[in-house]
Amino acid sequence: MDRSSPLGPEASAPALAYIALGSNLGARDDFLRQALRRLDETPGVRILQVSGIYETDPVGYTEQPAFLNMAAALRTRRSPHALLGLLLETEQQLGRVREQRWGPRTIDLDLLAYEDAILDESELILPHPRMMERAFVLVPLSDVLQAQAARGLPDPHAVQAIAAEARRIGKEGITLWNTISWPSASAPSES
After folding, report:
1. Catalytic residue numbers?
2. Which fold would CATH assign to domain 10-129?
């Protein structure tokens, strides 16, 4: 694939992407912070905004500890596929073991959206196919989008749609657990 292509290894211009983070094993909040820090220290990636940290009931396989979930906006020069590769690599570095679908994990990093990209491939579907069904994704994502809208960044219609869907689904099983003052919480590098 052409390296300058928006879908190639490197995007030709910085792109705005949104990710979801979750953890329900060990020092859950530490895994979230480590993931943010590792991503932000990666050349061509800059964390722009983070949501609050929410404690959430497990979905799918429910016989496991509660999750801490959050969302983040980032600016990247990586293509969607290269960014997904970075997320998977970061999970592995932080001890993620895939034994059971929707099972317990040290860290889970999902690429939710990448600019206006629409992909439907075996390894990557954008926007994330189940994000509009999951309050544990929509509530933190709504935080991020609203904070960015206050700074004039994303499309206000997208913000309204996500916020409306988060309200429709409700916040049952979701409690604000903590906040992160980014970037001071993890002291990211100046890359």
Report:
1. 96, 105, 108, 110
2. Alpha-Beta Plaits (3.30.70)
